[in-house]
Amino acid sequence: MSGLSGFPEFLPADRNVELIVLDHLREVFELHGFASIETRAAEPMDTLLRKGEIDKEVYVLRRLQAGEGDSDSGLALHFDLTVPFARYVLENAGKLDFPFRRYQIQKVWRGERPQNGRYREFTQADIDIVAKDELAFHFDVEIAQVMAEALSGLPVPALTLQVSNRKILEGFYLGLGIAEPTTVMPIVDKLDKVPADKIAALLQSDAGLTAEQAKQCLALAEIRSSDGSFVDAVRALGVEHPLLDEGLDELLQVVTGASGADGVEVVADLRIARGLDYYTGTVFETRMEGHEQLGSICSGGRYDQLASDGKNTYPGVGISLGVSRLLVPLVAGGLTADRSVPSAVLVALTDEESRPASLAVAAALRARGIPTEIAASPQKFGKQIRYAERRGIPYVWFPANGDDGDRVRDIRTGDQVDADPATWNPPAEDLKPRIKEQVT
Amino acid sequence: MSGLSGFPEFLPADRNVELIVLDHLREVFELHGFASIETRAAEPMDTLLRKGEIDKEVYVLRRLQAGEGDSDSGLALHFDLTVPFARYVLENAGKLDFPFRRYQIQKVWRGERPQNGRYREFTQADIDIVAKDELAFHFDVEIAQVMAEALSGLPVPALTLQVSNRKILEGFYLGLGIAEPTTVMPIVDKLDKVPADKIAALLQSDAGLTAEQAKQCLALAEIRSSDGSFVDAVRALGVEHPLLDEGLDELLQVVTGASGADGVEVVADLRIARGLDYYTGTVFETRMEGHEQLGSICSGGRYDQLASDGKNTYPGVGISLGVSRLLVPLVAGGLTADRSVPSAVLVALTDEESRPASLAVAAALRARGIPTEIAASPQKFGKQIRYAERRGIPYVWFPANGDDGDRVRDIRTGDQVDADPATWNPPAEDLKPRIKEQVT
């Protein structure tokens, strides 16, 4: 981990963990037809700060060579991948095919004070589906299912994908006779930090609810289930509203459709409120077992107005995985890979004169996809083996020499066999770096 | 291509070209045992601007939320990957195994004026080998050979990897009796832009050479060969010096060792001077046929003092490929991929009720590694086929329906066959996006 606070950097073996994770994410996203895009790191300030916001923690760019009179470049580093994606969609709307599925794995930056210990640079992996004018609901189910599958293959502790739906809360509040549901949501959203009786009091004093209405709102927020039983639990509260029905049906489809991925429990959790003024239906959060203090490591939802150019509206549904947020603490806790290099084989060097022979062995192995490096110098073989050991390279190859033919040694077991560089293969699991220690 | 000058962005099909290129580079680098690292985007200003430089075109970062009295954060975006790598090596020297081979594929930024049309954000792919105290010469050969192999598989016009060696020039000038070789190099370096007779005059007026010395310097700069014949050509000039001998021997090894990769001609070219005050031996430049105006798209060399902490010195040899510099003009000229999505198959949808059947087909295909998406809505099959066509998806799958079993159609040929989602495979070349149009 690096010396500059908030800018995490990995050592090579730990970077291999990150590569394993990123490769897995990409594989799942592409299997589901999500196209890769990257957007530029910088956006005009007015794209980043909409509606007069000026409280965002962003890094503004200034040209060092700017003249005296020049102001800032008007550019700042993006702080998420959603805002740049919305801009990309509008800018290229005529050239994209909708519905457009995209994944985007990039760094983002936040202009935090160095003292506060928060990340100032981190990697996110987002998937979104965006359409023109209208986006069918089944895409909400797809987004949840794809991310659950992606999360399922990660070398991390058990995950819980919590799903809710704004329509349930809004419909329930309306069904209770509350005229302004939006005054209720921010108060209920504090349930994580504030005791329930305090919330009940606030709902009455600040949102003008009756004691009974407040009790019902809290009862709704208590409901969670990893199957469809949450529907009956909500019904049992006796509140009715068409929007509530719609929300329950949607949430049931998402929970049912996304369940079944190993290591990822999908639950309907009606306490999840996640910026409900922003999302318009499905919302997601994700907790990692034993790391609850990280908050949600993977969040998102449906926004019926991801982007709009005044003429057309582009609704979207998406979810964003905080790759650094997930990995940096796990790596600090010991998660690493079994080697610091990609090499599966180190070809030993008998003497400087026989370097061409060692090069030929390496070329033969590489031609069949086996990552191979050659010992830096013709030290004693014991030293060359330790060279491999330090890097976690599992095999050392001894080129033919005099009466001895080519031999390869698994340095973990000491087993040594005769081998032909044109045909020998390591077991598939030794071909690439693997996770060494699974942290739980 | 995007609307913000200097910040190129790709449409999805063009991004697939970039992914094909980046995947290929990574594969070659890893086959040769180069470890991946990434460094943070920002470095302290004093790391970026060494020795009192203040003329670098860098982007300085300022926190939008900085208070009145706060100055800039002291950070700026890196403008290459060499300076951050040197800092990373020093910072982690105790935890790295030397010699350390690393590749690094990342964006870099230059704080250029928007008007000048230069890139302000672009991707570079660097490989370097760095050692502690001493780095054997054979690593120069390895770096050239690995990059030649990496360049060889790219979907680009013919490339020429031009190699020279500072020791040849310095030894030759010393052998000519020139006391200060460093005064000669910057003048000879102008040969690309200034006529030879003018250079000869400058060498006499500004560097104090005799007419004969100037003539010899120009004769040396004319020498180029893609085999070992440059050695004889230099010898024929009749100049002798131990440093010249050493340089000729080194250059011969690099040219011989790196030759043989398809599409990449390796030539000894004694006009290449490339910041010779910086490099200490081997130097590289690369030209692309028909795109000479781009200048060198892949450059580097040997620097005996990549990094130093006062106690230890870390010599290195490396080469840096300008991925954006190479691809952006080619994509603008028509280089693209055969599809805008990763999907090899679109599963058609008979009606909304049979969506689960289409999902099951897709799951069966994905389970065997076939990227698959499902039609967004149950339009007429003709429309669903055009949906696939627009995205370049080669196959449309029609799930079993009534008496009809599962069928799959190659929409490029119209050929349709009965198929089982548990066993059918597309030809390997259809599994992933491919380069559609090779620009020459």
UniProtKB/TrEMBL annotation, chains A, B:
Region (Disordered), start-end ranges: 407-440
CDD domains: HisRS-like_core
Keywords assigned: Aminoacyl-tRNA synthetase, ATP-binding, Cytoplasm, Ligase, Nucleotide-binding, Protein biosynthesis
Domain called Aminoacyl-transfer RNA synthetases class-II family profile: residue spans: 21-342
A Pfam family hit: HGTP_anticodon
SUPFAM superfamilies, A to Z: Class II aaRS ABD-related, Class II aaRS and biotin synthetases
Molecular function per GO: histidine-tRNA ligase activity
Entry's EC annotation: 6.1.1.21
Biased composition (Basic and acidic residues): 429-440
Alphabetical list of Gene3D superfamilies matching this protein: Anticodon-binding domain, Bira Bifunctional Protein, Domain 2
Catalytic activity: tRNA(His) + L-histidine + ATP = L-histidyl-tRNA(His) + AMP + diphosphate + H(+)
Lineage top rank: taxon: Bacteria
Family the UniProt entry places it in: Belongs to the class-II aminoacyl-tRNA synthetase family.
Subunit structure: Homodimer.
Protein name: Histidine--tRNA ligase
Provenance organism: Aeromicrobium panaciterrae
